[in-house]
Structure to design on (568 residues):
């Protein structure tokens, strides 16, 4: 939350103070290690970092590393290094190693990138009218069946707008994971996440009141958390997606962020300086989730904070939702002043002061080329931890869930549109607002305009037809061909295969061809289930094709023997 004081510049807890220094490496070149880690190594200190491994070489979450990484970790461990953390769905390892081994780590071809461990803090009907949310809700869309993952301080699932809380279908708030206490009870102990979740999906006043809140606690009771804990939260969401996405998570909100020596912030994107988060956010996008991140409250005009600066996320800056009376007086005089002041932050040594007005860009919001959209912020009436409401929840922490809620409405209305299309609808429509600090123009979110945009943008391709397998059965090491008729306008196809008829634990492969070779290895006879859907790169999918069932047998030429009995 961002604190405000009437007419008096004053220090306030604004955007996170985050030690953001990282790097990226490609191919077999030496990884570019962040300067902060080299300084630790040079001082003889132990280095604590997140290591991104080349795909296919990362260790299993509960087992030993495989292949060439075995020798890498064995070599480092013999010198005193320790693996202290792993992720089940991300090719990332947390490693503590003596500084003298940092050079060996950076030179290993299996290492894609290294990121330091950072500390993050929370950034902290009103906006709905400004964004014309009511017009979309009036058409029957309220977020029904859509999951919004909220990675924050947790959620008070006892609040009337966010209850009941539990696991499985039918709960308003799904208790997915707590990366702070490492359990499955992400109850809020600070308050920030409850207000964020309420803006996006509160059952009475939320933008998407029928959406499901998927709670993931990554910040503690002081609103702080490490980059590893945030990645653990992302990993838990990826696990739910790979388990069949039972909560239909289509949007993920992060109202947190910060700055560092290598990102003060800067212009453009920051993927190269933080490969761990680049991998994580790319995985979410590939899984069909739009990640929405607060741009930051540092008053910076040269760029947005981390992790809003990552290329695959939608960075959201803040505008006022209305004129705010900061000095009310008895009628008939009304309001004496609408002037508001904010304390110092990353790019505001003396804070900032301005008159409030609907759609005016807030003086504290971070802005720059990576910014995606503006959304309303001050002053949101939002659910409060323990019951009741915050009277003025603001900052880009509030702007992000406003945008997330609109994204959930769009996902319900257009279920076959992917994150790229949802993002395009939000960024390419709305009310253009010029930031006089840097002459940058971005659109303020307009739910109705985005809704109308998707009616004709990136029309989903037709469902593949003529699906078949030839031959129609498999045995031993023999192969078959799974094919379908070419779909006009499709850029590629996604094929799922599973041994379960409901496609749980399915594997998926993408192809630009209208057929794929098919083989299967199993010790016992069974049935392989296949289906395919078409995709357009602009961001839309067809429905799944009819299923094709392919029986298989580990032995070829097996004959069924029948016991015959003589009839009297």
């Amino acid at each position: 939350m961002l604190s405000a004081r009437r007419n008096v510049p004053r220090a306030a807890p604004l955007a996170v103070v985050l030690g953001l220094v990282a790097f990226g490496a490609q191919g077999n070149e030496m990884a570019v290690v962040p300067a902060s880690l080299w300084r630790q190594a040079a001082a003889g200190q132990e280095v604590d970092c997140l290591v991104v491994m080349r795909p296919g070489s990362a260790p299993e979450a509960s087992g030993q590393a495989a292949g060439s990484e075995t020798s890498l970790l064995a070599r480092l461990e013999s010198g005193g290094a320790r693996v202290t953390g792993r992720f089940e769905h991300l090719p990332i390892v947390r490693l503590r190693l003596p500084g003298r081994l940092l050079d060996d780590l950076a030179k290993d071809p299996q290492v894609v990138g290294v990121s330091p461990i950072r500390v993050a803090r929370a950034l902290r009907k009103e906006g709905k009218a400004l964004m014309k949310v009511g017009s979309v809700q009036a058409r029957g869309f309220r977020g029904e069946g859509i999951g919004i993952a909220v990675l924050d301080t947790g959620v008070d699932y006892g609040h009337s707008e966010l209850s009941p809380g539990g696991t499985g279908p039918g709960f308003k708030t799904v208790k997915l994971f707590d990366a702070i206490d490492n359990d499955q009870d992400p109850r809020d102990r600070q308050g920030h996440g409850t207000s964020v979740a309420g803006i996006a999906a509160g059952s009475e006043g939320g933008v998407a009141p029928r959406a499901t809140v998927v709670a993931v606690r990554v910040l503690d009771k002081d609103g702080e958390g490490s980059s590893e804990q945030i990645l653990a939260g992302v990993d838990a969401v990826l696990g739910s997606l790979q388990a069949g996405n039972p909560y239909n998570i289509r949007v993920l909100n992060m109202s947190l962020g910060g700055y560092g020596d290598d990102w003060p912030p800067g212009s453009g994107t920051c993927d190269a300086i933080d490969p761990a988060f680049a991998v994580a956010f790319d995985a979410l996008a590939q899984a069909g989730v739009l990640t929405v991140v607060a741009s930051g409250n540092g008053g910076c005009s040269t760029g947005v904070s981390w992790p809003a600066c990552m290329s695959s996320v939608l960075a959201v800056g803040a505008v006022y939702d209305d004129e705010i009376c900061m000095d009310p007086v008895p009628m008939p005089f009304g309001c004496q002043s609408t002037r508001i002041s904010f304390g110092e932050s990353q790019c505001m040594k003396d804070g900032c002061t301005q008159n409030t007005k609907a759609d005016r860009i807030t003086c504290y919001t971070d802005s720059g080329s990576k910014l995606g959209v503006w959304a309303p912020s001050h002053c949101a009436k939002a659910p409060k931890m323990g019951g009741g409401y915050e009277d003025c929840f603001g900052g880009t922490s509030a702007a992000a869930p406003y945008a997330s809620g609109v994204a959930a409405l769009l996902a319900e209305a257009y279920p076959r549109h992917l994150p790229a299309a949802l993002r395009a609808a939000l960024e390419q429509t709305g009310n253009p607002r010029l930031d006089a600090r840097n002459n940058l123009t971005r659109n303020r979110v307009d739910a109705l305009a985005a809704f109308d945009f998707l009616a004709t943008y990136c029309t989903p391709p037709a469902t593949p037809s003529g699906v078949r397998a030839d031959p129609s059965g498999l045995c031993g090491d023999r192969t078959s061909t799974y094919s379908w008729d070419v779909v006009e306008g499709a850029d590629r196809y996604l094929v799922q295969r599973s041994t379960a008829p409901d496609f749980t634990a399915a594997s998926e492969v993408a192809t630009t061809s209208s057929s794929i070779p098919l083989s299967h290895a199993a010790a016992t006879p069974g049935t392989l289930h296949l289906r395919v859907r078409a995709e357009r790169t602009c961001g839309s999918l067809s429905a799944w094709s009819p299923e094709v069932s392919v029986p298989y047998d580990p032995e070829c030429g097996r004959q069924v023997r029948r016991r015959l009995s003589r009839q009297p």
